[in-house]
Design brief:
Protein name: Glutaredoxin domain-containing protein
Strand order of the largest sheet: 2-1-3-4
Number of helices: 6
InterPro entries: Glutaredoxin (IPR002109), Grx-like_ET (IPR051548), Thioredoxin-like_sf (IPR036249)
Distance between the termini: 32 Å
Shape: elongated
Strand content: 5-15%
CATH superfamily of the largest domain: Glutaredoxin
Organism: Streptomyces hawaiiensis
CATH class of the largest domain: Alpha Beta
Pfam families: Glutaredoxin
Structural class: alpha+beta
GO molecular function, one term: electron transfer activity
């Protein structure tokens, strides 16, 4: 779990250091602006923008029941963020598995991607799709409901 927060914490620390330097040099307005930018970057790169992750086995069990896709992701992945943002509100309907928190999820991704932990990997009807187009994932969601 701590690995998921390294980048966001580093961004907050760097933003704080930069803001402190700007305050000392007499530009508090710029300090506030830079700190806000770094905090927003930390928020976007944190696990907070993703729906709550579940374990891979639970996600696969739920997907078998309701037919919804399973998305394997990891914090800090720009392609995972792109998928999450482009799915919008429908992202809550997908079963999300954080591969950094779930060893079974990481193993499933490696099995689907020739030993690589390439994310996002989306499982639809038992078939893996690596870094699919978000529009395609939305289409799969509309088919499952």
């Amino acid at each position: 779990m701590t690995r998921a927060w390294i980048l966001p914490m580093l961004l907050v620390f760097c933003g704080s250091a930069l803001a402190a330097g700007l305050i000392v040099s007499g530009t508090p307005g710029a300090a506030a602006a830079f700190l806000l930018v770094f905090v927003l970057l930390a928020g976007v790169n944190s696990p907070l923008i993703f729906p709550r992750s579940i374990g891979a086995l639970e996600a696969q069990r739920r997907s078998a029941v309701d037919g919804r896709p399973v998305v394997f992701w990891r914090p800090g992945c720009k392609y995972c963020m792109r998928l999450r943002i482009r799915l919008g509100r429908s992202a809550r309907q997908v079963h999300w598995v954080d591969i950094w928190r779930d060893p079974a999820g990481a193993a499933a991704v490696r099995a689907a991607n020739d030993g690589n932990e390439t994310v996002p990997t989306v499982i639809v009807a038992g078939q893996p799709h690596t870094n699919p187009d978000p529009a395609w994932v939305r289409e799969q969601l509309s088919r499952s409901t």
